[in-house]
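S.,

Sequence below, as promised.
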Amino acid sequence: TLISTTLFKVQDVLSEGPIEGFWPVSGVSGLNPLCSVYFDNVPLLDGGGQPNYNLSGQGFTFRFTSGTSGQSAISGFERVEALIPLPLNTRVFNPPPNAGLSKTVVGAFNTTQYPDAEGIKITVRLPALYTVDQTNGNTNAYNLSYAVDISTNNGNFVPVAGVDIPGKCTGPYYKQTIYTLPKEPTGQTFYSWKVRVSRTSQNVMAVSTQNELFVDSMAVISANQYRYPMTAMAAFVISADQFANLPSRAYDIKGIKPFVPDGYT
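The prediction came back faster than expected:
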């Protein structure tokens, strides 16, 4: 009942701008930019309009800018996300009594490192989640829960959210949540934060139950929107189920527009 889809999100710089656009190919669909975009040296679309990849699959998006001075930000790519360092062991552990010490995962950062920090995106990973009924052998769903707390300027941790993950999976499942970073007292020029993930449901220490929880990543989200004027760019969101690794990208473009002196055509 728990199924997660991993997406690659890529933004490439093509050239200084403005550029003329993408180079056309022969065929009824030859003017489509996807005919001039290549993943692992294979065009996404041939001139006849036939896709070489599943372009209608879940999450596929392609957008570009030509590099004008007044261009808008690419939708979905306006804000920068920067991963912050985490401990080597990111297991979140809440054992039964006398079964070990509890363990939380804490990420720390400040506005010196990230001046326009506005939010935090937390991705947790469950290697598997289920419990096996020892009476009849059925594999049943399980409910796992965790909490997110944030400390501002070395203050006490304040509860931000409690998250429940009810369901069943026999392979990795990822869940992302985003939270606004508190800025109290307001008007300061410097803030530091600690973001803590702790488990609220107790670990079941039995082979018949899989219920481990790890923090996969934390990413700081910027407040500013970036439109990259005078820079031609291409941006993709693609499902990872089509690729073992992030594909190499290549582009055939009509390049930067030069200024033409008066008296020339």
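The first strand starts at residue 7 and ends at 16.

Coffee later?
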